[in-house]
Amino acid sequence: MKRTILIMLSALLAISLAACGSNTKQPENTAANSPSVTASASAKATSENTNSDSTESEEIVYEFEFADIDGNVHKLFDYRGKPVYLRVWASWCSVCTSSLDDFDKLSEDAEDFVILSVVMPSQSGELSAEEFTEWYKAFGYENIIVLLDNDAKIVRDFGINAFPSQIMFDAEGHIVYGMVGLLSGELITETMQRIADEST
Question: What CATH number did the domain enclosing 9 receive?
Answer without folding.
Answer: 3.40.30.10
